[in-house]
Amino acid sequence: MLATTGRSLIPRDRFAPACAAADIVVSDRRLPDWCQPRWLKLDAAALAHTGAVAIWLDARRVTTAADAAGDRPWQPH
C-alpha cells in the first residue's frame, strides 16, 4: 500500500515506480493517469465519486458508500 498526504510535489522518477509496485494507492489529491497500481487507485477524484471505501484484503473486495446509497441524481458524480 502506498499513501500520500500533503501538497508537496513528488518527483515522477521516484513516484512512478512506487505506484507501479503498490497494490493499492490512496491519496488526498488527484493522481496523474500514469500512476497505475496493481489493484486499486483511490485518489481525490475516485473518492469524490465513491465516497467512503471499505477494503477486504483477503477477499480482494471493495465496497463503497456510493454502492450502499444507490443512484442519487441530485449528487454530482
Word description of this protein:
- This protein is of the alpha/beta class.
- It is 29% helix and 23% strand.
- The protein is built from 3 helices and 5 strands; from the N terminus they run E-H-E-E-H-E-E-H.
- A 3-stranded parallel sheet has the order 1-2-3.
- The longest helix is centred in the first third of the chain and has 10 residues.
- The protein is globular, with a radius of gyration of 14 Å.
- The protein starts with a strand and ends in an 8-residue tail after the last helix.
- The model has no long low-confidence stretch (mean pLDDT 89).
What's the arrangement of secondary structure elements?
Blueprint: E1 2-4, H1 12-21, E2 24-27, E3 40-42, H2 44-50, E4 53-56, E5 61-64, H3 65-69
Parallel strand pairs: 1-2, 2-3
Antiparallel strand pairs: 4-5
Rg value: 14 Å
Total of DSSP H or I helical runs spanning 4+ residues: 3
Share of β-strand residues: 15-25%
Structural class: alpha/beta
Q: Between the first and last Cα atoms, what is the distance in angstroms? A: 26 Å
- Based on CA inertia axes, which overall geometry fits? globular
Count of individual beta strands: 5
Low-pLDDT segments, ≥5 res: none
**How are the strands of the largest sheet arranged?**
1-2-3
* Helix-strand sequence: EHEEHEEH
